[in-house]
Design a protein that fits this description.
By secondary structure, this protein is an all-alpha fold. The chain has one domain: Helix Hairpins. The protein is about 75% helix and about 0% strand. It has 2 helices and no strands. The chain has helices spanning about 10-35, 45-65.
Length: about 70
């Protein structure tokens, strides 16, 4: 769920933090994929978490664009 932030600077800070987390999730998902079939049972959960973070990041960037 995306929080509504009206302050562009606060929004930029949140985007920066989420960008860092998204990058880490992307690397973790990549590492998991490289190790397949080991830990395959974690794939769906990790992919869903990664998707959710990137979706939220996209929504926040769109919100920032409308504010600027």
């Amino acid at each position: 769920m995306t929080q509504t932030i009206v302050n562009p600077e606060a929004l930029k800070t949140q985007i920066k933090r989420l960008n860092s987390r998204a990058g880490q999730m992307k690397m973790d998902l990549h590492d998991l994929a490289e190790g397949l079939p080991t830990d395959y049972e974690k794939l769906i959960e990790m992919a869903n978490e990664t998707y959710a973070i990137f979706y939220q990041l996209d929504q926040l960037k769109k919100q920032l664009k409308t504010l600027e």
